[in-house]
Design goal:
Layout (H helix, E strand, L loop, with lengths): L4 E4 L2 E5 L6 E5 L20 E3 L4 H11 L4 H18 L7 H17 L9 H7 L1 H18 L5 H16 L3 H22 L8 H19 L11 H8 L1 H18 L5 H19 L1
Antiparallel strand pairs: 1-2, 2-3, 3-4
Helix pairs in contact: 1-3, 2-3, 2-5, 3-6, 4-5, 5-6, 6-7, 7-8, 7-10, 8-11, 9-10, 10-11
């Protein structure tokens, strides 16, 4: 391995001969007294980053100049853990976005400054698995740096993971979270029920609403197989669920300029029937 660029004493880049892709190589003192073109002492390599998106690769290299090496390593550990736990792949931007976020969050926490996460309650219920990873992450940071992070920070980390898995901007993810929670509130108050969050029907409903919210934000229409003939059956047999679905339709069209199709109403009504039936039982 020959040095392509020296970013600092602990970080260099190389160009992979097989793929011609630039990799970021990290290790204590790996570039000390070294010059471009010289070989790397491979025993000093601690981390190898391959960010295929060239734009994100450049941003990541810029970030390396600004924050401690340890923070970058911690961020990479969290991302690797999240991939394993969530069985998910992430957009390359997470290496920049999460690392940059953690650097500021750690600094705030060390100064005793807290920023409230106003979507924490929603995140805990809508993105349960991502939130669990977020809690693991703040414990991991505490072990590595001795910095106590607030629970709100677990929610922020969870949102970054959701962003990266969907390829969305933070603003879109926050809007999607708000949409799902607002719809759950409409359902809860219409049927006067409290959700059993351990019930599989609730999980199925939330999963459906996540994709529903994603389509709303992306302005993409739902195009399943033909389901319109079911609409009359839904009206006849699941009248209250259909009426609640119409209330949700009205809320979405009023607030998000998104026209909901008959197919959406059918699927939403069926999910409502399942979850309400389980709650009544």
């Amino acid at each position: 391995m020959r040095i392509h660029k020296i970013l600092n004493n602990n970080v260099v880049t190389i160009v992979d001969e097989a793929t011609s892709m630039e990799k970021v190589i990290m290790g204590r003192g790996i570039a000390f007294k070294k010059k471009v073109g010289e070989t790397i002492d491979e025993s000093k390599i601690e981390k190898v980053f391959l960010i295929e998106n060239r734009k994100e690769n450049i941003k990541f290299q810029q970030l390396i100049h600004e924050i401690p090496l340890e923070y970058i390593t911690i961020s990479e550990e969290i991302i690797s853990y999240a991939k394993q736990q969530l069985k998910a792949s992430f957009d390359d931007h997470i290496y920049v976005a999460l690392t940059d976020h953690l650097a500021f969050a750690i600094k705030r926490a060390s100064l005793g400054l807290e920023i409230k996460n106003h979507l924490l309650w929603e995140i805990q219920r809508i993105y349960k698995e991502e939130y669990k990873v977020g809690l693991w992450a703040i414990d991991f940071i505490g072990e590595k740096l001795g910095v106590k992070m607030p629970e709100d920070e677990g929610g922020f980390i969870a949102l970054h993971l959701v962003n990266a898995s969907l390829g969305k901007e933070m603003g879109d993810t926050m809007n999607m979270t708000a949409i799902v929670q607002d719809i759950l509130n409409i359902i809860k108050y219409y049927f006067i029920i409290e959700f059993d969050e351990k019930d599989i029907s609730y999980d199925r409903l939330v999963t459906h609403l996540k994709f529903f919210a994603q389509r709303i934000i992306s302005k993409k229409k739902f195009t399943p197989s033909e389901t319109t003939p079911l609409l009359e059956l839904i009206k006849k047999n699941y009248g209250k669920q259909y009426d609640c679905a119409l209330k949700i339709k009205s809320y979405i069209e009023k607030n998000y300029d998104y026209e909901i199709s008959e197919e959406e109403i059918v699927y939403l009504s069926l999910h409502l029937y399942r979850v309400v039936s389980r709650q009544n039982e």
